[in-house]
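== Sequence, structure tokens ==
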Amino acid sequence: MTEQPAASRPAPALKVIGRALESVLFSSRWLMLPFYVGLVVSLAVLFVKFVRMLWDFILYAPGAKSTDSILGVLSLIDVTLVANLILIVVFSGYENFVSRVDTTGQPNWPVWITKIDFAGLKQKLLASIVAISAIHVLEAFLNVDAAFDAVKMTWLVGVHLVFVVSALLLALSDRWGAEKTNSE
């Protein structure tokens, strides 16, 4: 009969120190809160910018060429997509990294607020970036008669393609990772 070694137990003092460190690390998530509040402030600033752009659009659109009207609308869409991006980051970041959002008794809250995990957040961020990039390429293309710059257009399309390929690769890697996790 072989003798088994006694299981080593950490000293009580080390256990207390370990729990204190874990508590500090866990509580440090609240340091993210000012970042999310700052993003909400940036959303308010973006709202002021949107209202100003909308006002200018309303004043100048009736006499503008159709391409200028389309460019104005695309600019409004661009700002809206950035605002959506900020909201996605604030809600899902807060939910994933700081504290759960209690949506009970809130029937009008979007379902996605508590459903986006980190992988979903990355995909939504990249999808928004691709859409914003596409709008910039489209704006440059519609403005091609006014000021065509082949180098700038090439860079815009190239950067946009990098975003598209990055989004596709991220989606594929997430899918492969999920398939691998499900098969184990």
User: Anything to note?
Assistant: The CA atoms of residues 30 and 99 lie 8 Å apart. Helices lie at 12-27, 33-60, 66-97, 118-142, 150-183. The mean pLDDT is 83.
